[in-house]
């Protein structure tokens, strides 16, 4: 199983229900961090039979913790890392993998109050076989 993990800190996570500039900035930030960290692993041999296990750990400010739904927070991240099969918005997509997120067989989501402001965002762990 190939592991890849990296932080995407420095911006508040944006839920799927958001549109416009906040979503564009968030997805671009996720994209940029993913591309930077993906240089450490070989993702070229991903096929339509590859399966993924994904963990996303969201660090949220106190005022956003109670009102943030994990399912809405994960969609923009997954649609940026994997191919967004409903892509019509012009947001970044497929930063790590040229396959859809339908190949994810395990998805673990957490939200937490980070110890400090430097941990606002999402921590990503992905494994695939």
Provide a compact summary of the structure.
The protein is an alpha+beta fold. It has helices spanning 21-38, 62-65, 70-81; strands at residues 2-9, 52-59, 104-112, 121-128. It has three helices and four strands; from the N terminus they run βαβααββ.
CATH fold-level assignment: 60s Ribosomal Protein L30, Chain: A
Largest sheet: 4 strands, mixed
User: What class would the helix/strand composition place it in?
Assistant: alpha+beta
Q: Which sequence of SSEs, written as H and E, runs from N to C?
A: EHEHHEE
Average pLDDT confidence is 91
SSE blueprint:
Layout: E1 2-9, H1 21-38, E2 52-59, H2 62-65, H3 70-81, E3 104-112, E4 121-128
Parallel strand pairs: 2-3
Antiparallel strand pairs: 1-4, 2-4
Helix pairs in contact: 1-3
Question: What does this protein structure show overall?
Answer:
The chain has 3 helices and 4 strands. With 129 residues, it is α+β, with helices and mostly antiparallel strands. The longest helix has 18 residues, at 21-38. The chain has a 4-stranded mixed beta sheet with strand order 1-4-2-3. The protein has one domain (2-42, 49-128): 60s Ribosomal Protein L30, Chain: A, CATH 3.30.1330. The radius of gyration is 14 Å and the shape is globular. The protein is 26% helix and 26% strand.
